[in-house]
């Protein structure tokens, strides 16, 4: 365990630095998206300048651009479909290490990269730990734009309140040019059990429930970094 400062940014940064140490020479690494992944990419760039040799597959155009600007070679998933390790953040983590991801809008590519990696590690600060998924975050659901209201109505029928994500006055678009519906479910219900019913809705591309996908979560606390394992 590693001592660190008490502010949330410091917690997240120290957890990211800790996770960056998991990358070994010669690895192909899946690089996540969002604020935590930004810290991770910078930490890995520092290690690369110190001599670490590795390459990456990015889960978003933003991460790819950042990594490339820092001298990290980035491959397309189709060119390098098998990774040694993927590291990403999460919006919620339950006691079984099930996750909600996708508030940053890159859930489809994040899940593709995680599914293509031998190991999938999550980095988070302690505020992301919840007793049950859905306590603080909606479940993001990526849907095609054509007929998106049909998917919204089907999600509502599952007990959710589905709202199309906006970017100011216009709908938010993913890197794949799809909409995201943020779905609020009662956390007292079986949110984990909704993965298959959501995926079965015609028009749904992917959802932000990452279930049984990680066995390790690196958590930043005010005075230490903790590693949770399933």
Keywords:
single chain; 230 residues; alpha/beta; Rossmann fold; Alpha-Beta Plaits; 2 domains; seven-stranded mixed β-sheet; four-stranded antiparallel β-sheet; disordered N terminus
| Portion of residues within helices | 25-40%
Structural class from helices and strands? alpha/beta
Give the C-alpha Rg. Answer: 17 Å
CATH topology grouping of the largest domain: Rossmann fold
Sheet bearing the most strands, described? 7 strands, mixed
Multimerization status: single chain
Tell me which CATH architecture of the largest domain applies here: 3-Layer(aba) Sandwich
DSSP summary: helix tally: 6
Poorly predicted runs are 1-6
Shape: globular
Order of helix and strand elements from N to C terminus:
HEHEHEEEEHEEHEEEEHEEEE
**How many structural domains can be distinguished in the coordinates?**
2
The residue-averaged pLDDT reads: 95
CATH hierarchy class name of the largest domain? Alpha Beta
Explained architecture:
Helix 1 (8-20) packs across helix 2. The chain has helices spanning 8-20, 35-49, 61-69, 107-115, 148-157, 195-199; strands spanning 28-31, 55-58, 74-75, 85-88, 92-93, 99-100, 120-125, 139-143, 161-164, 166-167, 170-171, 179-184, 204-207, 209-210, 216-220, 225-229. It has 2 domains: 8-129 and 211-229, Rossmann fold; 139-208, ACT domain (Alpha-Beta Plaits, 2-Layer Sandwich), CATH 3.30.70. The radius of gyration is 17 Å and the shape is globular. It is built from 6 helices and 16 strands.
């Amino acid at each position: 365990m590693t001592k660190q400062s008490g502010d949330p940014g410091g917690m997240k940064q120290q957890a990211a630095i800790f996770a960056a140490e998991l990358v070994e020479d010669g690895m192909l690494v899946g690089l996540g998206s969002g604020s935590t992944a930004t810290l991770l990419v910078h930490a890995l760039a520092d290690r690369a300048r110190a001599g670490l040799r590795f390459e990456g597959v990015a889960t978003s155009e933003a991460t790819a651009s950042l990594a490339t600007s820092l001298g990290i070679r980035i491959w397309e998933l189709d060119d390098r479909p098998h990774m040694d390790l993927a590291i990403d953040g999460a919006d919620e983590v339950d006691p079984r290490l099930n996750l909600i991801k996708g508030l940053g809008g890159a859930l489809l590519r994040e899940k593709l990269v995680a599914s293509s990696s031998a190991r999938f590690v999550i980095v988070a600060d302690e505020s992301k730990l919840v007793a049950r998924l859905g306590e603080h975050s909606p479940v993001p659901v990526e849907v095609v734009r054509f007929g998106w209201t049909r998917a919204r109505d089907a999600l509502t029928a599952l007990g959710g309140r589905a709202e199309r994500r906006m970017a100011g006055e216009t709908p938010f678009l993913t890197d794949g040019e799809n909409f995201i519906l943020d779905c609020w479910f009662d956390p007292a219900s079986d949110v984990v059990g909704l993965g298959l019913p959501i995926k079965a809705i015609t028009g749904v591309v992917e959802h932000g429930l990452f279930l049984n996908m990680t066995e390790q979560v690196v958590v930043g606390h005010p005075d230490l970094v903790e590693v949770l394992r399933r």
